[in-house]
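Session log. Operator J.P. requested a structure for one protein chain; no other inputs attached. Running the standard single-chain path with token output.
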Amino acid sequence: MLLDQLPKNQSAHIDAIDWSALSESEGQRLRALGIDEGATVETAHRGVFFGSDPLAVRVGRMMVALRRAHARAISVTPLETHMDTPAGAESV
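Structure written below.
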């Protein structure tokens, strides 16, 4: 799944980034902001303008705005949420 397809408030693990789809300066900026393979991100907000730009993504305790074109270069795996099962309870 690509980051721009991740549902709002869903956390995900960054599996890969297509660095060739980004300019060198864009790649450096993303890395400086903590967006790299292995990081965990969460979508927080989608813009309302043409194509839902920008996309607000939480990385750690920081909120980062990404262009949708940049988010399309980032492959993620959604993380499961375990909110349905209370702590200490077993699912059947």
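Operator note: Residues 82-87 have pLDDT under 50 and may be disordered.
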